[in-house]
Backbone:
């Protein structure tokens, strides 16, 4: 069970970090996406976007390295509920044409009920991690003197498997995008 928890922890941490990094790369575009949701007053957008990015990157890094895990899982749950609520509000308003603004590994998609279900699945995954929390492979374990929970061959194996899974997922996403571009190019050349 510790292996599965560590695997999911690496995935979750990487998901949050990749999302934040993507948004930081084009902060102006991301701010416009949040504005399109038409939930927050315009004067709060600047502060909200920066606060959310700090929360995402901090949560992702702390989950990835294993610091303050129970608290970080609760923050991840809160963020996932926040995203789900914003998407649901806009879907109920009939607004499907805007980008979700997810970024990173999650990608950017137009709003849909599928995104709501995906976000709820991630929320329940975060909550399960909170309930099943282990310090296996975490800095919390190292700092509390449980070196065998940190310096363990199985910990390294799970981290390597997690990273390979992430790389394979990213490569398949890139190959799918390349396939679409080639297909579009063929159609325009006809």
Residues:
């Amino acid at each position: 069970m510790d292996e599965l928890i560590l695997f999911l922890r690496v995935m979750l941490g990487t998901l949050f970090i990749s999302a934040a990094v993507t948004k930081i790369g084009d902060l102006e575009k991301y701010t416009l996406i949040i504005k399109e949701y038409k939930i927050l007053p315009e004067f709060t957008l600047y502060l909200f976007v920066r606060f959310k990015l700090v929360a995402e990157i901090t949560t992702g890094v702390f989950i990835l390295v294993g610091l303050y895990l129970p608290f970080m899982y609760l923050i991840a749950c809160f963020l996932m509920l926040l995203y789900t609520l914003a998407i649901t509000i806009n879907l109920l308003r009939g607004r499907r044409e805007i980008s979700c603004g997810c970024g990173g590994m999650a990608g950017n998609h137009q709003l849909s009920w599928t995104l709501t279900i995906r976000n709820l699945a991630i929320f329940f995954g975060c909550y399960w991690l909170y309930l099943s929390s282990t310090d296996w492979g975490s800095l919390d374990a190292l700092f509390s003197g449980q070196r065998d929970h940190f310096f363990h061959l199985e910990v390294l194996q799970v981290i390597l498997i997690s990273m390979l899974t992430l790389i394979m997922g990213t490569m398949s996403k890139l190959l799918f995008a390349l396939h679409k571009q080639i297909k579009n190019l063929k159609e325009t050349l006809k």
